[in-house]
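User: Some background: our group keeps a shared notebook of sequences we're curious about, and every so often someone picks one and asks for a predicted structure to add to the entry. Today it's my turn. The entry only has the sequence so far, pasted here. Could you supply the structure so I can complete it?
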Amino acid sequence: MKRRVLIGSAAAAAFARQATAQEAFPSRPVTIVVAFPPGGQADVVGRPVAAALERIWRVAVPIQNRGGAAGAIGNAAVARATPDGYTLLMALSSMALLPEAARVNGREPTYTPDMLAPITLFAADPTLLVVPAASPISTVEEFIAEVKRRPGQVSYSSAGNYSALHVPMAQLAQAAGLDMLHVPFQGGGPALTALLAGQVQCMASGPGPVAPHIRNGTLRPLATWGRTRLAGFEEVPTLIEKGFPDCEFYIWVGLFAPVATPAAVIARIRDASRQVAGDPEFRRAMAASGNTLDHRDGEAFLRFYTEDAARLVRVVRALGKIE
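Assistant: Of course. Here's the predicted structure to add to the notebook entry:
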């Protein structure tokens, strides 16, 4: 009996400590991992999210850029992190397809999507096809004609094989029968730098990183991968309008935690994320960066994520193995 009492007391004490820890969350800095170098879509959205969370929580929320393997390294790091809410992932849509890409190429995935719990969606914009403003190409038709005129010579940059910047270009190549030269980089930031430096001729990108360069006349948008035209770029046609019904791709940005994170901690992060979505400074930052705020959480985000992940897996399987 005495032993049972001691065990019961220990369990009660442990429960009390856990409850106290959850009530106090966050009591120290919360790190948000971006699985790419600075300058890409996840980084552009992640930094104003972190700044808003710092205002709400009154603790530091540093961004940690952990690039490599098209995002798989950073994604896996968070998937395997201590599930206490203090290490979160600002993920791109490619998070859902990279494990399938590993399998297609005969490798064991370093993580699986079910190791990460979706918390909040902040943006879900279609990618934009952009070329330098100095390019003689000004329409989708001219772009396709140029690629067909020079098969294998028109190059595009991406954040790596099967990344959220590679897959839409591969979709277009399949749909239009194009042979383009893929030049993968370690993230969207370096991929954009390569385009601006004239090292490649085009790229697909989320609107955030390229919007300032479109506004200042450095880049020219040719089309989007959306079902409807993108807000703020209403003059830019969709590829669906141009006769490519299968060219639909959204580069979404959402916050995830390791799946075993306590429900009470997830709830606190979700509640704070709702406050972020309504924060005036955050909304101004999103508008200035060219991103459309698309806040969804709970069942709404889970439904969106599940449906999109299934579609992306089908795309990866169609792409097949990449040497």
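Suggested note for the entry: The longest strand covers residues 116-126. The two ends are 66 Å apart (CA to CA).
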